[in-house]
Amino acid sequence: MRYIDEFRNPELIRKTLDEIERIVDANDHFRIIEACGGHTYSIFHFGLQKLLPKNIEFIHGPGCPVCVLPPGRVDEVLTIAAKNSDVVFTAFGDVMRVPGKFGSPLNYKATGTDVRMIYSPLDALNIAIKNPDKKVILFAIGFETTAPSTAITVLNAKELNIDNFFVYSNHVKIVPVLQSILDQPNMKIDGFIGPGHASVIIGAKPYEIIAKKYKKPIVISGFEPLDILQSILMLIKQLKRGEAKVENQYKRVVLEKGNVSALEIMNQVFEDRPAFEWRGLGAIQNSGLKLRPEFEKWDAEVYFNVEKIIVEENKDAQCGEVLKGIIKPNQCKLFGKVCTPDNPIGALMVSSEGACATYYNHMFSSVAF
Amino acid sequence: MCLAIPGKIVEMVDDQNQYAIIDVSGVKRKVNISLIKNEGVHVNDWVLIHVGFAMNKISEKEAKEQLQLLQEIGEDMEALEEVRGYQFE
Amino acid sequence: MLNDKVVFKESTIQLSHGAGGKASRKLIEGLVAPYLKVNELNDAAYVQAENAKIAFTSDSFVVSPLKFPGGSIGELAINGTVNDLAMGGAKPLAIVSTLIIEAGLETAILEEEIKAMGEAANKANVSIVGGDTKVVEHQKADQLFITTAGIGLVDPRVNLCAKRVKQGDKVILSGPIGDHGITILLARGELDLEADIKSDTRSVWPFVKKLIDVAAPGLKWMRDPTRGGMATALNELARDAKVSIVLEEEAIKVRPEVRGACEILGLDPLHIANEGQFIAVVSEEYAEEALKAIQEVPGGELATIIGEVQESDRHIVLSRSSYGGTRAIDMLVGDPLPRIC
Questions:
Q1: Mutate to test the interface with B, among C191, C194, C196, C253 (most CBs of B within 10 A)
Q2: Would you say residue C11 lies in a domain?
Q3: Which residue of C has its CA nearest to A16?
Q4: Which of A118, A342, A369 is closest, CB to CB, to C334?
Q5: Contact state of B49 with C339 under an 8 Å Cβ cutoff
Q6: What is the domain extent for residue C33?
Q7: Average pLDDT over chain B, rounded to an integer
Q8: Given an 8 Å threshold on Cβ–Cβ distance, is B3 in contact with C340?
Q9: pLDDT band, residue A359 (cuts 50/70/90)
Q10: How confident is the model over A21-53, as pLDDT tens digits?
Q11: ipTM of the complex
């Protein structure tokens, strides 16, 4: 088993689609929010939306860590790297095109700032080890999926006594933001396709509040076509029965209890921020992670005394409304005209998992067929 | 969200079980396995990889069960149809 | 063909303007073409010299690292130039080249690249007839840049023009995609990935020659999908020919290692560069013979028909999966960047 092709099996896909079609009635209307950018990407990439009954509506959620970064966040450290030739800015490829106040990391790189793309947080630590005369900043992003990897990297830096490696943490937590969306007035959501890979770490338990307090069903889902279709089927079955349970479709990697050692390591290194700013959603309590005081030696915020840079957003940009599912990306005034993937105004247009970029790249296919 | 993909462990790198070489369709990379070392990691295990770390082992049993379940979708219906076919009108 | 008016508004040139995708197109159409009054954008241009129709092209090569599995900058420079001419339906005749060398480059490295150029030219049966050499200060270039110009004699039997591309025409791809781009990405070593793959750099003229011999009347358009990959090349065709292109996902060959690397890095093989493949659009009538012709040339065994042209108001590229899902395939935006989320 390769764990990819098997979950793209055309015959099983058809079968699952038929079953969904069979149980959905003509007068049903389900508004399903997929929390993950990865789900948004898969739904479009595999053309699933068009294969599903029209009365299943997708709302594209906040689960793209690049998209929810407040503008100004990249500038805060890029300006430091630009001013000091011994400072190296490192980040995942996803961050490289995020527009800041004075340009994206790639723009900074093109004009001489030492900006390097990495695949793993450990790569940033290795750059620090190989360049003892440089100060290496890891611009860390990601949900609980990624935070343990950053945490191990910090622990390694401590163990190896590396003092020229610093983390600028933008790590965020999935459950607080889902709650924040449910707390928005006029939210009409019937159920959630739950994050698959964040749940590998946190398990299924933290979602109980969504089922119990908000009475919304949630199915933790994988990312292959069969995973997503099976999750939709499970969700619709719950909705038809009037249930609101946490279910786990992605059992091959998600355990009920999550990855306990990863959680321990994450909690050893990180603590909740009282509040963290989300693009389009505002400040959300206990939704962000910062390094604990005992690791402040590796905390870029502390070491560089980073000053907050506030960027006025284009008034016509409706990123927040898109994130909350109030409007579809193509209903934003800037969509496709001013704001495009090669000239993104809002971050939702930057990442290929951002709802707007996904819409932009795929919207035409529904017209042609 | 987060891009994580399945890969097979082909070689253990160190005695502390910190690193392993994984293979994804013939592409090899050293990944950190300390997040799963308590689970007991062995060569030929499949793991889920994200940013150079193995996040969890992949359960073949669960994967097979899922596919089996999907295979059986609608079979009850077919069986029912079959039975109906033998009934008198 | 410049259909829509593009205005180049950016205040500085960024790396993405050279990456071969949307941004590059904007720069060329919005800034270069209007001043130089170029109204057809192709890899090679046609010049009528008395009775001969000449294809004329120029290219530049700035690859890092200089050497990589399956090739090197010198080999790339010759094959890239030859292929631009071949895509214009022209038999490559002669190349001139300029070497821009960073002071301090080891002679042995330069020697190896010049040798590689000579060998590639020999293999492609084209002469290097002249050139120029410049040495620039340290850090004003990255080791070695090569620019070339090439001419070829256009086969009188061909008539290549996007406007001739019509509903029902077949899209043929010469072989598996993504080998070159992934090889380079891995060879840079930043990602710590290892795989047994090599660049596909080669002259595609032998395939094209055979194609012209058997299917010239039905041959309508060709392009080698280098930077920007297949997705970008076919989107340009869709736009220029005012059609949509529907691909069958399964028919597009991608080596397992390339697919694996793309999965790890979150990249789409359709956006990855190639240096030894080409796409040909052939009328339905000639499609099977054309395919057979390519397959019969050694190295063309994996050629397939990957899709067809459809009339549509939307000038886009669609890909259809085996279970009936379709997705639109956009041009590359900027450089392909690995992603984790």
A1: C194
A2: yes
A3: C323
A4: A342
A5: no
A6: 1-41
A7: 86
A8: yes
A9: confident
A10: 999 999 999 999 998 888 988 898 888 988 999
A11: 0.91
Answer yes or no: do C340 and B29 touch at CB < 8 A.
no
* Whether the Cβ atoms of residue B64 and residue B51 lie closer than 8 Å to each other: no
The mean predicted confidence, pLDDT, of chain A is: 92
- Those of residues 311-340 in A touching chain C at CB distance below 8 A are none
Determine, for residues A119 and B51 on separate chains, whether the beta-carbon distance falls below 8 Å: yes
Domain that holds residue A59: 5-63+184-197+209-246
How many independent structural domains does chain C possess?
3
pLDDT at site C3: 46
d(CA A72, CA A60): 24
C-alpha to C-alpha distance for A312 and A152, rounded to whole angstroms: 35
Count of CB atoms situated within 10 Å of the CB of A187? 16
Does B56 sit within 8 Å of A253, measured CB to CB? yes
Closest-CA residue to C81 (of C210, C207, C201): C201
The CATH code of the domain that includes C205 is 3.90.650.10
Q: Which chains touch B (3 or more CB pairs under 8 A)?
A: A, C
What is the number of domains present in chain A? Answer: 1
In this structure, the strands spanning C90-102 and C71-72 are unpaired
Q: Taking CA atoms, what residue in A is nearest to C190?
A: A118
- The residue in chain B having the minimum alpha-carbon distance to the alpha carbon of residue A18 is B74
Q: Clarify whether residues C170 and C241 are in a common domain.
A: yes
Overall fold of domain B5-86: SH3 type barrels. (2.30.30)
pLDDT confidence band for A165 (50 / 70 / 90) = very high
Q: Contact A253/B60 with Cβ under 8 angstroms?
A: no
Question: Helix %, strand %, coil % for chain C, to 5?
Answer: 35, 25, 40
